[in-house]
Design a protein that fits this description.
By secondary structure, the chain is mainly α. It is 76% helix and 0% strand. The protein contains 10 helices and no strands. The relative contact order is 0.09.
């Protein structure tokens, strides 16, 4: 019901009113969502995480390398979003409004953390944060491509971004080699 309302009219406080008009009990909306449409929005994003996790559990990804697992999880999530593209597009752009930035950040973090959890990542050091920042960037970029172009271009976009990210360790390694082998009088610039 919510997806149908939001797909046609977008997110606003009118969602509660339209749900009541459609027969949803106002007491249920008060009890579960405190008559706040943003609580319904957050609930729908948590449900997206659960759906993604449940679908991934049905396929065997544990034997894949970590980067392939992440791609599989990300593509599964994009597939789910594509099934209700209008709903998620309105949700995505509603979350981009300045007054919704807090909800956007919290749910984006929750989503990428969930994807890494499903992938079996158990890093605890600095990599924990960098992996989530990188995946958040790739994910939001993939959503932008999905909502403004078409589904076929999303996988190409994800592959290109993952390819770019895979080059980071090589660049760091080269920089480290250069830093260790530069003349002593230039070392002050790199410390």
């Amino acid at each position: 019901m919510v997806k149908k309302i939001v797909s046609s009219d977008g997110w606003s406080s009118d969602v509660i009113k339209k749900l009541i008009e459609a027969g949803v009990k106002s007491t249920d909306l008060t009890f579960f969502f405190k008559n706040d449409y943003k609580k319904i929005l957050e609930f729908s994003l948590k449900e997206l995480n659960k759906i993604n996790e449940n679908r991934i559990k049905k396929i065997n990804i544990i034997n894949l390398p970590l980067n392939k697992r992440i791609k599989k999880i990300l593509m599964m999530r994009i597939n789910i979003i594509n099934e209700d593209k209008d709903f998620y597009k309105k949700t995505f752009y509603h979350l981009m409004l300045p007054q919704n930035l807090k909800i956007l950040k919290a749910n984006l973090y929750r989503s990428v953390d969930n994807m890494w959890y499903i992938a079996g990542d158990n890093s605890t050091d600095f990599n924990f944060y960098t992996k989530r920042i990188i995946l958040a960037t790739i994910y939001t970029n993939a959503l932008h491509v999905l909502f403004n172009h078409n589904f076929d271009q999303v996988e190409i976009n994800i592959d290109n971004n993952l390819k770019k990210v895979s080059k980071i360790p090589k660049i760091k390694e080269r920089f480290s080699f250069l830093k260790e082998n530069i003349p002593f009088f230039l070392k002050g610039f790199f410390n």
